[in-house]
Design brief:
Layout: E1 12-13, E2 24-36, E3 42-55, E4 58-64, E5 78-83, E6 92-104, E7 107-116, H1 119-136
Antiparallel strand pairs: 1-2, 2-3, 2-5, 3-4, 4-7, 5-6, 6-7
């Protein structure tokens, strides 16, 4: 049996950065975020966001309202994230660090790398992305 064809560019975002090991699936998933303080505890109320692309090691998301996620100038912005993959399982709970940010037409965009994610949740994200890709290509 031959290997599956490479993922199409319009469905999976290619890694522009050599450090990224996995392609990301373009998706719209709601997430809840909380900024973590220096003590690792959540600060303030959870805010809403939308994951625009997702992979087992990170995501790109839009936050709303844009000014609600702020970091101290002397440290990286750490987030606690919670989102559902729509497969009926418990929500994915991850800690993430903001690696970069930019303004987009849809608001403030954050590129995050997961810093704490169980192996089970990492595999769940990986298989979720594979399943969505296969569905889009008519393979399942």
């Amino acid at each position: 049996m031959s290997p599956p064809p490479p993922p199409p560019r319009e469905e999976l975002r290619s890694a522009r950065d050599e450090r990224r090991r996995f392609d990301r699936l373009r998706i719209d998933l709601e997430t809840r975020l909380r900024v973590l303080g220096p003590d690792g505890q959540g600060q303030g109320e959870a805010i809403g966001g939308v994951i625009k692309n997702l992979g087992p090691e990170g995501a790109f998301l839009l936050v709303s309202p844009p000014g609600t996620v702020e970091a101290a100038p002397d440290r990286a912005l750490a987030l606690e994230m919670c989102f559902e993959l729509g497969d009926g399982r418990d929500p994915v709970r991850a800690l993430a660090e903001v690696r970069w940010e930019r303004q987009t037409e849809g608001g403030r965009g954050l590129g995050v790398q997961f810093t704490r994610l169980s192996d089970f949740e990492k595999q769940a994200i990986y298989y979720f992305c594979l399943r969505k890709y296969a569905e889009a290509r008519g393979l399942i």
